Amino acid sequence: MTIESEKKDEKKYRILSLDGGGIRGVLSARILKKVEEILETKGHKLHTYFDLVAGTSTGSILAAGIACKKSAGDMIGLYRDEGKKIFPNSVRSARKRRWLSQLFGDKVQKFLTKPFGIKVLYPNQDGEPGLAQVLQEKLGPAKLSDIKELCILIPAYDVKYRNTTWFCNFDDEPQWYDNIELWKICTASAAAPTFFPPYKLFSDKDGYLPHIDGGVSANNPSLIAIARAFELDKTSNWSNIAVLSIGTAQTTKSYEYEEVEKWGLASWAKNIPNIFMDPAAISSETICRRMMTMQVGSDRNYLRLSFDLKKFCNEEYTNISKQEKKKKKDMIEEIDNPNNFKELIKAAEWYLEKGDVIKYENKKYARMQGVIEGIEDFINSNPKPKPIIDSNSKPN
User: Fold this and answer.
1) Are the C-beta atoms of 243 and 223 separated by less than 8 Å?
2) What is the dihedral of CA 247, 249, 254, 259, to 10 degrees?
3) Cβ distance 17 to 225 under 8 Å?
4) Which of 91, 297, 363, 385 could form a disulfide with 123 if both were Cys (CB 3.0 to 4.6 A apart)?
5) 75: which residues sit within 8 A by CB, 6+ positions away?
6) How many C-beta atoms lie closer than 10 Å to residue 69's C-beta?
7) How far apart are CA 218 and CA 236, in angstroms?
8) Neighbouring C-beta atoms of residue 9, cutoff 10 Å
């Protein structure tokens, strides 16, 4: 590589965008493992290749892990080993007893929770193991302002002031959240309504600010990541931005009118997270692809990796009845079921092996390309000089 091309490559701003999706974040982690393997052949780690890592909800956990120099294998291990602490089976079972709220109302349900231990609404109450405790153990005391080697962006929705907070380092001016620990910010970004309670983050000016899942406004954070890139570098243009966007798979469960028409509050509460995640993520994907391809002329600077989850789920389902197959395929789409870990890993691996992506050239859809080939093409089209010093090494 010539000095001239190195200078040109250094101007590229490489963005990694990671969707929300609960336990299905393991799909993103497995895809990241393949990205990591390809980068390592070129002398890079995830945290040395990407300049900005944006993550929403479960994606925020992955983003924070990368910022803390954890490997994709470490993050897969988090979902495997801690999934049942984050999403306890007892809570999942209790939530399914939606007849409590349908018959007696939320106040009676809340009353029954205490004496009978029926934790219908949320896990992670005070003193219980759960999401916050797991993240504190895994991410440690690192604060947002401690991240120096790359930009990190995590959205969460502030329900007090009704806006989305972009938690981000590298601001010109001090921000109220600079010294908040990463694990707290991730807990806020992942506080999906009906699955987790709002999470309070302290501001000297405003006191405690309750935040909920960033997926409410930006489940696919690609667009806000691009906006942030322009904020950070006023001289950037579209050709200098490269975006690798990784989703947690689309769900295809259909709802008939006769079913939805009978839903009460509890049924809507159960299904809304699954319904609101996909449309926002797909809209962001469509807008990003159109902006990147229209401005640059091709999508060598943009790659979206996501897939129809049922299409790539366990093919062993072919040996069972249609009813059982449908039940299992509906189950794998659940965002709070840690028992799906092995099946999700298989789905991600089959997608990497058998899936494809559309390559866009000269403002026309040109051809289909294998997923791994697509990842290699993205990295080769957006190279970065090897770091002079391994950022994992400690100074003498």
Assistant:
1) no
2) -70
3) yes
4) 91
5) 29, 32, 61, 62, 65
6) 15
7) 23
8) 14
pLDDT, tens digit, for every residue of 1-37? 333 344 444 578 999 999 999 999 999 999 999 999 9
Give the separation between CA 140 and CA 182, rounded to whole angstroms: 8
237 phi and psi, to 5 degrees?
-130, 175
Question: pLDDT digits over 129-159, tens only?
Answer: 588 889 999 999 999 999 999 999 999 999 9
Contact yes or no for 155/214 (Cβ under 8 A): yes
The three-class DSSP label of residue 72 is: helix
Kind of pairing between the strands at 241-246 and 302-305: parallel
User: Long-range contact list for 309-314, CB < 8 A, 24+ apart?
Assistant: 309/24, 309/27, 309/249, 309/250, 309/251, 309/252, 309/333, 309/347, 310/251, 310/252, 312/249, 312/347, 312/348, 312/350, 312/351, 312/354, 312/355, 313/343, 313/346, 313/347, 314/343, 314/346, 314/347
Separation between Cα atoms, residue 62 and residue 114, nearest integer Å:
34
The CA–CA distances, whole Å, from 349 to 229, 278, 391 equal 31, 21, 29
Pick from 220, 203, 123, 221: nearest CA to 158 = 203
Residue 27 and residue 344 in contact, taking contact as beta carbons nearer than 8 Å? yes
Q: Output the pTM of the full model.
A: 0.86
- Residues shown for the chain: 396
CA distance 215 to 57: 6
SS3 122: coil
Rounded-to-integer distance, Cα 143 and Cα 167, Å: 11
Sequence letter at residue 350? W
Contact (Cβ atoms closer than 8 angstroms) between residue 250 and residue 308? yes
CA–CA distances in Å: residue 366 to residues 357, 359, 360, 361, 378: 11, 6, 5, 6, 16
